[in-house]
Amino acid sequence: MYSIETHNLCKNFPQLKSYSDIVLHPFTKLENVALRNINLKVKQGELFGLLGTNGAGKTTLLKILCTLVLPSSGCALVQGLNVKKQEKKIS
Question: Are 38 and 81 in contact (CB under 8 A)?
């Protein structure tokens, strides 16, 4: 069993539009991609670290695993519990 497991985990945040974008392209949806197709498996008792540059998505991944932020798509499991469906059981 894995302590942490993710399958094609993605997170997109909406981007604020400028006034000219609202007038010229009112129906265009702008998004910032924080995570794209993250696949991760961490065994129970295993030590791991997250490394990356600023803006790479390290904090976003941790917030999803702590159920503070919901993923846009994909699946994240903590101790076999789904972060979307069983967030109250994850402590």
Answer: no
Give the Cα-Cα-Cα angle 16, 20, 23 (nearest 5 degrees).
100
Q: Is 91's pLDDT higher than 80?
A: no
CA distances from 31 to 10, 13, 16, 75 (A): 12, 5, 8, 20
Note the pTM of the prediction, 2 decimals: 0.86
- Give 1-34 pLDDT, tens digit per residue: 899 999 999 999 998 888 888 888 888 888 999 9
State the Cα–Cα distance between residues 60 and 69, nearest whole angstrom. Answer: 8
Mean pLDDT of the chain: 93
Q: Where are the domains of the chain?
A: 2-82
Contact 35, 60 (CB under 8 A): yes
Structure token pair of residue 63: 């917030």
